[in-house]
Specification:
- With 894 residues, this protein is an alpha/beta fold.
- Helix content is 45%, strand content 18%.
- α5 runs parallel beside α7.
Amino acid sequence: MKSWVYSFGKGKAEGSAAMRELLGGKGANLAEMTNLSLPVPPGMTITTEVCTYFYANAQQYPADLQKQTTEGLQKIEKIVGAKFGDAKNPLLLSVRSGARASMPGMMDTILNLGLNDETAAGLAALSGDARFTYDSYRRFMQMYGSVVLDIPHHHFEDILDSAKREFGRFQDSELTAEDWQTVCARYKETVARETGAPFPQNVQEQLWGAIGAVFKSWMNARAITYRKLNDIPAEWGTAVTVQAMVFGNLGNDCATGVAFTRDPSTGENTFYGEFLVNAQGEDVVAGIRTPQQITVAGKAAQKSDAPAMEEIMPEVFAELNRVRDKLEKHYRDMQDIEFTVQQGKLYLLQTRNGKRTAQAAVRIAVEMAESGFISREDAITRINPTSLDQLLHPRLDPDAPRQLLTRGLPASPGAAVGRIYFSADEAEAHANIGEPVILCRIETSPEDIHGMYAAKGIVTARGGMTSHAAVVARGMGRPCVAGAGELHLDYVQGTLTVAGKTLRAGDWITIDGGTGEIMAGPVPTIEPTLSGDFATLMAWADGARRMRVRANAETPLDAETARRLGAEGIGLCRTEHMFFDPARIMAVREMIVAANEAGRRKALTKLLPMQQQDFHALFRIMDGLPVTIRLLDPPLHEFLPHGANEITEVASALKIDRPALVRRLEQLHESNPMLGHRGCRLGITYPEIYEMQAEAIYAAAAQAVRDGMDVKLEIMIPLVATRRELIILKEKIAAIGSRVAANLPHMIGVMIELPRAALAAGDIAQDAQFFSFGTNDLTQTTLGLSRDDAGHFLPDYQRAGVYAHDPFVTIDQDGVGELVRMAAERGRRARKDLKLGVCGEHGGDPASIQFFETVGLDYVSCSPYRVPIARLAAAQAAIASAGKGKVFNKAAAA
């Protein structure tokens, strides 16, 4: 019989950490901790395969699931010594989700399950604490009502707020047992009114309602958004863990908290965490109450007056510290631990690899590798390449003036400047029109995930360093200031008030997530310094990778930035970008509107020295590194004016009749310019354009050589579809090279961006010394998708599973990728020394780089700020290809 349920408890588990795909991260790690003899409440995990079955079979369960669940429940009852649904000695359960990839707060949880009128009375008699019992009962009804019965959360909050006013209480902790019983009665009335049925008293009905709700939450809006943002496949599904409840709210010898084995913001090797006395877990995560630090050092760092766990629960703290060491050594990575203390006894509810900032991830990986705890290969493969983007952006200028509004907790480092908005929807809407946004909330919830992703930074008035806002912000790489208690946010009026100053939606603020400072207005920034642990890791990556990494750059600033970030040359210089400079565009337009070749050559003569100067600057900056220069690619109409006023201005500047300019615009108009008169087609029909560019390139190269530079020139012809096109243009270009820069070693190659070019690669390679795959256009021409227009329907295609990823972000391996592989193989059969690279946007995408490693490309080229990302991704791809036994290039890694 197939096992759908795996039990754990009392030092023995049917699962292990190796079963993550089946048991999810939570279930696998609970089983592992149980096998390590750590104090884990007993439970059972319903596998991810049940989730898959659930969605494949109209939300029905496997026939034998109920039997296996009943058997698992009996094992829990035996270990705990209580019975589920028993009126005198009731077992209470938690029901939690657990996908194989961590998705903090995105799916649903039910606590205190098994309480009803009878078991509540029994628990009150057994514990002698009716206040605790009915507080737990109302918490259960509130969670179950919201999650399972779909009753809006505010209904319950309104009842609680009204009761506190009626009874003259200010805090939840002031309510008596009788007060809580009154609240419970009103909750039941609300459930009956909203659903037309009483709150379920049958505990089996409660259990299966909760299990179903957790499985259904796999497809809720916030979980779908989170999976999309983090590239988590929907088909993975979630497991469900059913576990005996332990209580952190039975009195002052109880607590609940979250701890990290290292600082998740900085990576410092120090115990880091927060807890609350006499509280349940959601109180810490939701940020409703300001938590206390677990260590005295943490208390001092946060300038907190509240006592640390180390002070008030020294024995529990000492045990938790031993757990910290044991788990980090066992998993060989920083752990995020959830724990509860019930009447002085520590229980572990979860461990997982902790979410961390890029800065922390790099420091942790490097320090663990340098200490011999993990290998260098482990350190390299442990870092998400795209997270390095966090380290490559500016920080606040320490010398710039700033107007401090208030301080909160430094929950996620980095600087962010933007306009404030108070809802996730507003934040997303304004970000979509190009505004930099700071999302300001009293506290965030999983429903805010889309706004948090859209924002440049996040501010909350409540919550601590382990609150939802802090954990998610760190995982996303967003700067975050949490728990800024002096802020007063009015969602209705759309205002933020602090220290007598009121800001409105759309006003500018600056936040520093490393210090917790919130400042009025924008504060200037400076470029980051890439050294220390980052430099060490990148040196290791350079020693491990096979593929080289170049940059797409045509301006001196881009080229200098690329070289500073480790680029090994320019893989794509788009010469047309040089033409849009205001000082040159008029000469370009003069060339385009010229009535004959003589007129075009006259205008091109003006452009030649400008182009020569541009290319010389690139050769100087890239001294000793290859520079690939692509000849003019876009259709000519892109350089001409389109608005009526602009047409009039250009006609006047060029001293031609406006009707003549309009006629020229009409002549150049194309219905589908992407497939029109562009690329090498321009070079064949207007050879003087490419001749001018070739002369400028060779003259700049010759001058650079005379200036003592080591020039490695590669000239690239775009949009080639046939060998004959290449032959015609190569002969013209080579003739100019022989005249202007005789004996200069260089290469002439083509951009492969059409399916026919990929198919005819063996033929084309006979006359091309290199191929550079232009995967942007190759994707468009292969899939029949316009990159400019497909955005309107691509999200629907992804949701429907037609494309797993946006094909313009991650290469379509089965279609476009297969053409790249075919062209590479056919090209190298014809020319063994054929150099192969890629210069489309995919050159900076880690998943695509993994594919290019398998194809055997020599290099990838990407935008300057993605160069470190590509360097690390190329190293990870090489390690994956060669296996863990790869020998490092010690010279490169030194």
